[in-house]
Please model this.
Amino acid sequence: MPNIALLPGDGIGPEVATAAIEVLNAVATDLTYDEHKVGGAGIDEYGVAMTDDTMAACKASDAVLLGAVGGPKWDTNETGAVRAEDALFGLRAGLGLYANLRPIRPLPALYDASPLKRELIENVDMLIVRELTGGLYYGERGTKDGRAYDTLVYTVEEIERIVRAGFRAAKSRVTSVDKANVLDTSRLWRDVATRIHAEEFPTIELEHELVDAAAMKLISAPRHFEVIVTENMFGDILSDEASMLTGSLGMLPTASLGGDGPSMFEPVHGSAPDITGQGIANPIGMILSGALLLRHGLGREAEAAAVESAVDKALDKGIRSRDLGGTATTAEVTKAVLEEL
Amino acid sequence: MPNIALLPGDGIGPEVATAAIEVLNAVATDLTYDEHKVGGAGIDEYGVAMTDDTMAACKASDAVLLGAVGGPKWDTNETGAVRAEDALFGLRAGLGLYANLRPIRPLPALYDASPLKRELIENVDMLIVRELTGGLYYGERGTKDGRAYDTLVYTVEEIERIVRAGFRAAKSRVTSVDKANVLDTSRLWRDVATRIHAEEFPTIELEHELVDAAAMKLISAPRHFEVIVTENMFGDILSDEASMLTGSLGMLPTASLGGDGPSMFEPVHGSAPDITGQGIANPIGMILSGALLLRHGLGREAEAAAVESAVDKALDKGIRSRDLGGTATTAEVTKAVLEEL
Ligand SMILES: CC(C)[C@H](C(=O)O)[C@@H](O)C(=O)O
Ligand SMILES: CC(C)[C@H](C(=O)O)[C@@H](O)C(=O)O
Model:
């Protein structure tokens, strides 16, 4: 009986978590869930975003399912140092989740919701593989005497393992994104990617793209990309940019993999304080995160595909939450998905 | 008699420079031009991307007009360490050009060329103010024992002056972009922006936006932005992303300001080795850089506006180079602009 560490978190997190569990229960009756308060909810209950006990429970689980953390209540000061988000950094580092996978696949039923012209997004099907436990996020930093600094650090081993994750996910082409005309870390990144490609994945095409050029091409020629692999901060920016191709952040799931223990699954959207408590959040990003949990966390491909296809069908039949220009509530969208299972 | 340091550079640089000088000559007959080889052309002639003599000549000039530098011939190795680009870094630092201005204004005549839906780009008129002499571009870096690092550094003074440049360029709203939920430099940035706003520009609205959210909003709601001010690397990525709204990089000029001496003007596009020597490059980005030179470099607003309006009219009448889906050559586009002056 696989045990899931369920971390609903803040804002709409608990609302979409309820929806996802309903859908998971419909396809996998043997799963058990242990719920823990993290993020702002953790701060309110225990004074920290993530207790040691919760971290231990996550490590002992078979997979972690996270809603969303953060919100204005826990912004410690005007500088935006949102401590609720420490839960995220702790989980990523604590579980060793160095590979963040973000599939970007605009659904035909939602082409009209995309800011891009239809002919550009037709058949877009890309995967962004973001390095998640290195770079500026975890480097030494400080502020002193009117001067602040952050350090961007990568080792050969850190680059090797994330580049391999990119190649393993690709059928024919990997685009490695860096800023090798400026950064030493990017030059090392490019060297390592080139070597791993030659030694281990010679039949897959490898192309190098500068991050500024990639930011353009994501909009002007998104179909070009199959798998993008890049460092932590570039991946943060490019994956949010690419998410817009689908028309709504509310649709998108993400998987964080790579540790020896459990992996973590969560929607791309945040805690959305503006619509919290109204029952109108789009649960699809969270439901599809449940599908990724079934696939990558538990190795249950058939169940994962069943959930994904139920979501596609429900959208094809016209169900739309507010973020997609419709009026359906969280419960109505969930019901529509359940009906297609 | 204002003297312009003309640095045509590499690839299509010399081709578009010729076009821009023709247009400048039509509105400002008193300008003189001293031409210097920089970038790959400098490496071929002198062994360095930028000689001390050229730097001295630039410093002694009234304004610097640059074409484009770089190209595959001068990539020193597979890691993409393009030495031709040292000319850029040298000029920016040497002339103290800390403020890079990038106007993004999709022209109605070119709405069809944009990847975004027309209703989203109508009336977009934003200015990106990118810090240009700090951050990861100029911090300490190195590679040793399988580990590379780059340092992102900002001082209070560096942030103050660029934030001021942003407010001065704004009528009603400045969006300051950072990653204050992760970086110490961004927390300092946010504090300084907040203070400069309160002390010096209280009548202009200041909003803070995280870089990942900004990368989304640039596509989903570009009309929201008036002036964006941000650090060097974020500015590099976001300004290239935003440039796609206009449909072609070939259209866009940029001004680098802030030093005690001359400022620098150049098109946003690169040296475009693939179309070099064919006479088909779009000269409009370079022609409009000439307009910015007239405005910001020499204080000649009327002449600058005349050039800009001639470009608008030529496009309205239908002239299109290849990047815009047309067939007009560089010379034909230039002639079309000259006819409207
Ligand atoms: C909340 C924030 C710290 C986080 C990040 O930058 O990693 C978020 O943007 C994400 O992409 O998961
Ligand atoms: C060529 C490159 C180093 C440069 C930069 O990153 O500054 C370019 O992208 C730019 O925006 O001017």
Chain B touches chain A through 63 residues (CB under 8 Å).
